[in-house]
Design brief:
Order of helices and strands of chain B: HEEHHEHHEHHHEEHHHHEEEHH
Shape of chain A: elongated
Largest interface: A-B, 17 and 14 residues
Order of helices and strands of chain A: HHEHEEHEEH
Structural class of chain B: mainly alpha
Strand order of the largest sheet of chain B: 7-8-9
Strand content of chain A: 5-15%
Distance between the termini of chain A: 83 Å
Oligomer: heterodimer
Helix content of chain B: 55-70%
Number of helices of chain A: 5
Strand order of the largest sheet of chain A: 2-3-5
Helix content of chain A: 10-25%
Low-confidence stretches of chain B: none
Number of strands of chain B: 9
Strand content of chain B: 5-15%
């Protein structure tokens, strides 16, 4: 038998076994009663968050979550499909298909497809850093993707363009109007 | 004769319905109570959708038990290639059936007098005549003996399952289950001996009825006041007999995968689980009957309340019956909840601690309890005469 310097010393009260068992039961039972009273009075009696329905309140305002593509005043994506984000991406999750429009002299290239595979994205934010046009940004909210198929975790151009801020200090554009 | 059969059928279907409901609901209660005790939310996703509507009945996840049952029924019934055909098929039923049978001798209410209950319907009242039925499936004098006889059968199921599945883990689990259940059954029997001495009978109905009296003029004459020590020992031994968590060595997941039912899948495994959950209810019912005054509220008997001051309050027959049935179910549910509290609070024993606890701690204590009870009862009786 080894001697431990911090071996627990049990007195006769602990050795009697039953009082300590009852004490433990009263602690767990007390927690149950407290949480149950909270649930029954309409409050929340748990520390956990209902994942898809609830978002945690303690997200940082600079949390790197879901990607968005910023838009020009006419609603087209600001992205010029230069593929810098796709090149810098360490997880190689961004796929861009470039379209060419000779009519638009200022921005001749534009993305036809812009997909991000969230099943592999590591949320490092390098795409945001790399973008020369401030076309891609990350929101504090995390993407909500509980699904039965990993193919549901691909985010494509229409979803990425849903971001439509009414007021943005970095881009004081007027709000988007329906075309 | 026909009346007797009709009443017996009603009682049996009531008992089976109650036990199955308890088994199903307890699977959910166990998870939910454990979750609330540890600041979690718990099972709350399963729902029933009313057909042709979008109304989803979630009810705090109450239907998780149904979902579990469906899962077990629909799963592949996989068998190991070298299993013993007969014993392997028989084992879940041998483990399951005795648990249900025990309930046959447990009284779940007072005496039913159909003529008085249906006095508004003269045809029914006349058909039943003067008959009266105790709310109990089998009115046996040997109640407690039957309980222990059938309780002892469950170990055969565990042993058969472990041996026939031809797996070392299963066999180890079965051996552990065998020695554990036999040890604790002995303790359980000894603790109840004191109660038998006090009440002078093994008939559970008589024991329940004697508990509606008064003890020392104030306390209700419950078994837990006569034999507080035996009550604790009985509950501990019963939980150990049911192989639940402080004593769940036969199923120790970290060492034995799932113990004696490792090689069982689908509903056969479900039967073992179901037997365990129903046994929680059975233990609660037994504890209620033996120690908590059975189906009666404190100071209540078959005619109404008899309070300590000599005050009596009469109640109609129907009201008494409903009260007794509801009180019995409520007590059973509270005891189930207590067992689940124990399951989520206490850490598991080591195997040598487990058997030492039975033979060197609980067994002498139970013996001492019986000895003290016998001497006390003898002294009180001889002093009274």
């Amino acid at each position: 038998m080894r001697d431990y310097y911090n071996a627990p010393k049990m007195g006769w009260w602990e050795r009697a076994y039953l009082p300590e068992i009852l004490r433990g039961l009263s602690i767990t039972g007390g927690v149950f009663m407290r949480n149950m009273a909270r649930w029954m009075t309409g409050r929340k009696g748990a520390l956990t968050t209902y994942y898809p329905e609830e978002t945690r309140a303690d997200y940082s305002p600079i949390n790197r979550g879901k990607h968005v593509l910023t838009q020009r005043p006419d609603g087209s994506p600001q992205c010029v499909a230069c593929n810098l984000c796709a090149t810098v991406c360490p997880a190689k999750v961004i796929e861009i298909e470039t379209g060419f429009d000779p009519e638009d002299v200022a921005h001749p290239t534009f993305p036809v497809q812009f997909t991000i595979d969230y099943s592999r994205c590591v949320f490092c934010g390098l795409c945001v850093e790399a973008c020369p046009e401030d076309a891609i940004r990350m929101m504090p909210e995390v993407p909500s993707f509980p699904g039965a198929d990993r193919r549901d975790m691909w985010l494509s151009l229409p979803e990425l363009l849903t971001w439509n801020p009414q007021k943005d200090p970095a881009k004081p554009y007027p709000p988007k109007v329906a075309r | 004769m026909i009346q007797d059969i009709a009443v017996a059928i009603v009682f049996i279907s009531y008992a089976i319905g109650v036990l199955m409901t308890f088994g199903l609901v307890l699977t959910w209660v166990e998870r939910k109570q454990g979750a609330i005790m540890s600041d979690r939310i718990g099972a709350n996703r399963a729902y029933l959708r009313i057909p042709f509507t979008q109304v989803k009945l979630v009810w705090w996840g109450l239907f998780h038990g149904l979902a579990d049952g469906m899962k077990m029924l629909l799963k592949e019934d996989w068998k190991p290639r070298t299993h013993d055909q007969l014993a392997y098929t028989l084992a879940p039923w041998v483990a399951f059936a005795p648990v249900l049978l025990v309930f046959a001798v447990i009284p779940f209410g007072g005496t039913l007098r159909p003529a008085e209950l249906f006095s508004a319907f003269p045809v029914v009242a006349e058909w039943f005549g003067e008959r009266s039925y105790p709310l109990q499936i089998a009115t046996l004098d040997a109640g407690l003996l039957v309980v222990f006889a059938f309780g002892g059968l469950a170990v055969i199921g565990a042993m058969l399952a472990g041996w026939s599945s031809d797996n070392k883990f299963s066999l180890l689990g079965a051996l552990r289950a065998g020695s554990q259940m036999i040890s604790y059954e002995l303790v359980m029997g000894l603790t109840v001996l004191g109660l038998i001495v006090v009440y002078g009978t093994v008939d559970l109905r008589s024991i329940a009825q004697q508990q509606s009296g008064l003890l020392l003029g104030v306390l209700p004459a419950w078994g837990v006041f006569y034999q507080p020590f035996a009550a604790i020992l009985f509950l501990t031994a019963a939980i150990a007999e049911n192989k639940r968590i402080p004593f769940d060595l036969p199923e120790a997941e970290s060492e034995l995968i799932a113990g004696y039912f490792t090689e069982y899948s689908a509903m056969k495994m479900g039967l073992f689980m179901f037997a365990e959950f129903i046994e929680i209810a059975i233990i609660a019912a037994l504890f209620t009957t033996l120690f908590l005054g059975g189906y009666n509220l404190p100071y209540m008997n078959d005619d109404g309340f008899a309070l300590p001051g000599g005050l009596t309050i009469g109640m109609s027959h129907g009201l008494v019956l409903v009260t007794q049935v509801v009180v019995f179910l409520a007590k059973v549910f509270l005891m189930c909840s207590f067992q689940i509290l124990v399951r989520w609070s206490l850490p598991r024993f080591r195997y040598d601690q487990l058997l030492r606890f039975a033979w060197r701690f609980m067994f002498p204590l139970a013996l001492a309890n019986v000895a003290v009870t016998v001497v006390a009862v003898w002294m009180i009786r001889s002093w009274g005469t």
